[in-house]
Amino acid sequence: MSKFDEEREQLHNKLLEMSSLVEAGIEHSIRAVIHKDESAASEVFQNEARINTIEVEIDGLAIDLLALHQPMASNLRFIVAALKINTNLERMGDLSVNIAHSARSLIDGPAIGAIVDIPLIAGLVQTMVRKSLDAFVACDVVLARSVLTSDDAVDSLRTACYHQLVAFMEKDPRNIRPALNLLNVTRTLERVADHSTNIAEDVLYYVRGIDVRHQSGD
Amino acid sequence: MSKFDEEREQLHNKLLEMSSLVEAGIEHSIRAVIHKDESAASEVFQNEARINTIEVEIDGLAIDLLALHQPMASNLRFIVAALKINTNLERMGDLSVNIAHSARSLIDGPAIGAIVDIPLIAGLVQTMVRKSLDAFVACDVVLARSVLTSDDAVDSLRTACYHQLVAFMEKDPRNIRPALNLLNVTRTLERVADHSTNIAEDVLYYVRGIDVRHQSGD
């Protein structure tokens, strides 16, 4: 294996490590909300420092590869995609922290199940996250494209949640504070879905050299 | 001027064009909220397609520079920073569209001035945007650092707005819908500030080769 291939594999493995951490963070943050699970929220906060450290390491590896090996064609595209995927993963990590904060505020509030279907939207978003990361690992263009089409379903569900939560707030002013936290959770999940879409676009760019951003339906 | 310098200048100029468009978008979106100015909101929507087009152009120029000239040291850092600044600018453009949507929903609502001080937080955020872009143009490390310290002030102000808006909602259920739109405006402005911080960090990386992300206070 050449020095370049070795370092490229190192970059790839670091991205996989980052992906696992971020995916776990999202899962814990959702569990913290749904099951009012304080320890799941704490795990998210503990993960954050590690994610931030790896983000800096990945950028360093990518930039070293550019500087030392002057890669071309698909190797160059892989590194540019790695830089972008890295940024998206780090933001997703931040968003899981954001959800974990809302989970903490919700712990002493009313039962959530009757108000809004968080597991439904969370399930959709987690599937998008998983597919976008699997598409990256397997260079799977079909899987990456399937992520792009899921984004609309998340947006509609988020809008439905918004209307349910507004009605819940209007019914009783004591509902306002918990509803605002739940609104934050659904909105943040939608942002997680947006980052999965970005990653899927980066995969398409890297594998096929095509730029699908801002095309029809965007 | 060498071919590389020529193309590097072209990339720099495109980023300036993008910056101007994004800054104008933010300004119009804020004007739309504060003055209930429908035409300012429309300008934001019209700007969006142009911003998306330039985003793709800038990435293309940056990747061509990497592929054709294999730049080193500060030239390489400039191109990596350009890729990252480009992403941040495009997101800021999206956020101005988000604010313009809230502005439209607020047009038939109550006068905003008495509820929450949008001009104060907007002024702070616009100053951060301006400074981060000026720091990029002038390679000004001191200016870039001043952006990083402003972020805390925006966060505190946003928290204060949150409490004011919750109190406003709790007073009368008819206040809930306009207050949610105003909450969206303040939260989105905070996100614009976060992107300015990211740009300031990219400038520090590019000019000095130092990575200030995730250091104390982060």
What does this structure look like?
- Chain A has a single domain, classed as Phosphate transport system protein phou homolog 2, domain 2 (Methane Monooxygenase Hydroxylase, Chain G, domain 1), CATH 1.20.58.
- The first copy, chain A, has helices at 3-34, 38-69, 73-106, 118-138, 141-171, 176-208.
- Chain A is built from six helices and no strands.
- The model of chain A has no long low-confidence stretch (mean pLDDT 94).
- By secondary structure, chain A is mainly α.
- Chains A and B meet through helix 2, helix 3, helix 5 and helix 6 of A and helix 2, helix 3, helix 5 and helix 6 of B.
Please summarize what this structure is:
2 copies of one chain form a homodimer. Chain A is mainly α and 218 residues long.
Q: In whole angstroms, how far apart are the ends of chain A?
A: 41 Å
pLDDT averaged residue by residue of chain A: 94
In the CATH scheme, what's the topology name of chain A? Methane Monooxygenase Hydroxylase, Chain G, domain 1
Largest sheet of chain A: none
Oligomer: homodimer
Low-confidence stretches of chain A: none
**Number of self-contained structural domains of chain A:** 1
Query: How much helical structure, as a percent, in the residues of chain A?
Result: over 70%
Rounded to an integer in angstroms, the radius of gyration calculated over CA atoms of chain A is 19 Å
Number of helices of chain A: 6
Strand content of chain A: under 5%
Full CATH superfamily name of chain A: Phosphate transport system protein phou homolog 2, domain 2
